[in-house]
Amino acid sequence: MLGLLYQRGQNVPQNYQTAVKWYTLAAEQGHAKAQNNLGVMYRKGAGVPSDLKIAMKWYKLAAEQGHAGAQYTLGMMYFNGQGVPQKDKTAVKWYTLAAEQGFASAQFILGGIYSKGQGVSKNHQTAMKWYTLAAKQGFAPAQASLGFNYENGEGISPNHKIAVKWYTLAAEQGLASAQFLLGAMYEKGKGVLQNHKIAVKWYTLAAEQGHAKAQFLLGAMYEKGKGVLQNHKIAVKWYTLAAEQGFAPAQVTLGFTYENGKRIS
Length: 265
Known about the structure:
The chain is mainly α. The protein has helices at about 1-10, 15-25, 30-45, 50-65, 70-80, 90-100, 105-115, 125-135, 140-150, 160-170, 175-190, 195-205, 210-225, 230-245, 250-260.
């Protein structure tokens, strides 16, 4: 597609305006992918002034032809009230159409919607269904959510070993929240043999991505010498990073540390 080549700058100089020209010509002939891509350009203001209403027009035309990406984006825009009045039920309709085509992001979002009961009756079993479908496609946020549900028994009997399995798959893809949760499983010995060194490994990976709770717990591991050599200076470093993000337990711990003159160096 000529429009796509100009949008991406493949074998031609990147030119969003020229991309829009070619997308428009194809979209006006009913080409679903061009309609979706034109919606993207208007939503982002690439090559044309940003206009959510025009974006919605093109997304809807593509979505009505079964374009899963457009269906997902329509769901997102209705869910967030972007360019249209906010409507949870309409969002669920479009998310579902995309999810039924195997669109992993839509499946994951639907899992969250059913878990919280937004625009639908709360149903943890249905949430698990959608999380599982997305997780089996390798979608890391769904894998983490599935792990959380297995850990906490939401929509299914608790199973810490299976929770660890899903947390690990997501953590290995670099998802900070999964790395943190996996670290906690190793620290507590839930679903795995307790191993503070491995807990520190996962906490560190999450903390280095800015995960505040992982930073706090990593600080605690260094303060207590769990899985690492005790090092108060490094403990304070991690406590400080978490505290600067507004994480209250880290702020309290730092305050107590400085109030009582606990060793910092």
